[in-house]
Specification:
The protein has helices at about 25-35, 45-55, 60-65, 70-85, 95-105, 120-125, 140-150, 160-165, 170-180, 195-205, 235-240; strands at about 10-15, 130-135, 155-160, 190, 210, 230. With about 250 residues, the protein is an alpha/beta fold. The protein is elongated and about 55 Å long.
């Protein structure tokens, strides 16, 4: 864990996907559930590669959604089309696209789950009297439904890209979260899984940005040595939070 903090926090904001909610696993399980009949010939290795390609989005289609170049549904369909083509499968026609997207929409929320370290950390924040919320690069209502499906209804403060017409790392979206918490940016932590968009973006907005590196990919990486980095949310409690209020 890096020791990069300026003062004790009075508030904490979180990213949602891959920070609070295990979205990659949810997407992978959904893909397998809705495509099992059509892809019955897939080996376990095939499934792993197919799911990874969809989640990793190497073509950057989700980023194009954030910039307004693609709709949310179109970026999703382009991602699955890329995964299909990479495995020598036919691209969906219009009817198949609509059917696939409907099935995906129905199935995905059933797989939303919070990481095991989330609820204990929120309990600690409550015990220490520290307000918290979430700032996400998706629209408010979609992420509200996701948090609720994952059992995180207790997170009341939520800022989506539609709140200020901006996406991370634009300072405006971080500062809207700070405004809703009623805290000072310099004493507000922001925790997320993306070192650039989340940690550096938050620091540029005047918050204390923390990179949640669940996979350990940043160990020894020179490019991220200036970032505060934790491997789990448990380390947030151990290294960044003030003691329980008496």
């Amino acid at each position: 864990m890096s020791e990069v903090r300026s003062s004790r926090p009075m508030g904490v904001l979180f990213d949602i996907d891959e920070t609070l909610v295990d979205l990659r696993t949810a997407m992978g399980n959904t893909l397998r559930e809705i495509s099992a009949a059509d892809l019955a010939h897939f080996t376990e290795e095939d499934w792993a590669a197919y799911q990874h390609l969809y989640a990793a989005d190497p073509q950057g289609y989700y980023d194009k959604y954030l910039t307004g170049e693609l709709s949310f549904t179109r970026q999703r369909l382009l991602r699955v089309a890329h995964a299909q083509q990479a495995h020598g499968l036919p691209v969906f026609d219009d009817d198949a696209e609509a059917a696939w997207n409907d099935a995906y929409d129905r199935e995905l929320p059933r797989h939303f789950k919070a990481y095991d370290d989330v609820v204990p950390v929120l309990d600690e924040l409550d015990a220490r009297g520290i307000p918290y919320g979430a700032v996400s690069n998706n629209v408010h209502d979609y992420q509200r439904a996701k948090l609720d499906a994952a059992g995180l209804e207790r997170i009341k403060v939520l800022v989506g890209i539609d709140a200020v017409d901006a996406a991370k790392p634009d300072p405006a979206i971080f500062l809207e979260g700070v405004r809703l918490l009623g805290t000072d940016p310099a004493r507000t932590l922001y925790v997320g899984d993306n070192p650039e968009v989340d940690a550096r973006g938050a620091c540029s907005a005047g918050l204390q940005g923390i990179w949640l590196d669940r996979t350990g990919i940043g160990e020894g990486a020179a490019a991220t040595k200036t970032l505060a980095r934790i491997g789990s949310l448990n380390e947030l409690v151990e290294g960044f939070l003030p003691p329980v209020l008496a």
